Amino acid sequence: MIYELKIGHMKKVFLFSMIIGLSFSCNKKVSEEKKTVKEETKPAVVVGADSDDHGCKASAGYTWSILKNDCIRIFEIGTKLNHFEDDKTQTTVAYVIFDGDKAELFLDTQKESIVLERKSEGDSWIKDDYKLIPWKGYVLKKGEKIIYTGE
């Protein structure tokens, strides 16, 4: 009888040990799976990897130019136009670069630049409702409203 109690007791201890061991190993496996899933969902951050579709690095100040067919720094080669609004000081600017009878306009409100064209020397550059007028520097209108001026 003592022998049967010891065997019964040993079975219980063994069964209890197995349950404890399995629960720890399953818990560890589940936590490893959660870590793996979390690691897979995190995008890799690569410094300097902010190139656009044309390879221009915005963090270095480069923007794609249709006219130049290259990455440019518009603040270095472009003509600066200041936002124009009666009786208000604005801090936004636009830039324009020229190539023959074409002008490429870079507005902070547009994702892509806008290429305007003129028919001959002295005429305004036009595209849709944008009009760049060479007058006391430059005046940019959208429709009938002056939106930027500059030299």
Mean pLDDT: 80
Give the strand line-up of the largest sheet: 6-5-4-3-10-9-8-7
Work out the helix count. 2
Tally of individual domains? 2
Oligomer: single chain
Number of strands: 10
Mind summarizing the main beta sheet?
A: 8 strands, antiparallel
Q: Report the sheet-strand fraction.
A: 25-35%
Helical content band? 25-40%
Low-confidence stretches: none
**What general outline do the C-alpha atoms trace?**
rod-shaped
Gyration radius, in Å: 34 Å
Q: Kindly, what is the distance between the CA atoms of the first and last residues, rounded to a whole number of angstroms?
A: 108 Å
Order of helices and strands: HEEHEEEEEEEE
Which class do the helix and strand fractions yield? alpha+beta
Protein architecture, described:
- This protein is an alpha+beta fold.
- The protein folds into 2 domains: 42 residues; 93 residues, no CATH class.
- Helices cover 29% and strands 30% of the residues.
- It contains 2 helices and 10 strands; from the N terminus they run H-E-E-H-E-E-E-E-E-E-E-E.
- The chain starts with a helix and ends with a strand.
Keywords:
8-stranded antiparallel beta sheet; alpha+beta; 29% helix; 151 residues; 10 strands; rod-shaped; 2 helices
What can be said about this structure in brief?
This protein has 151 residues and is of the alpha+beta class.
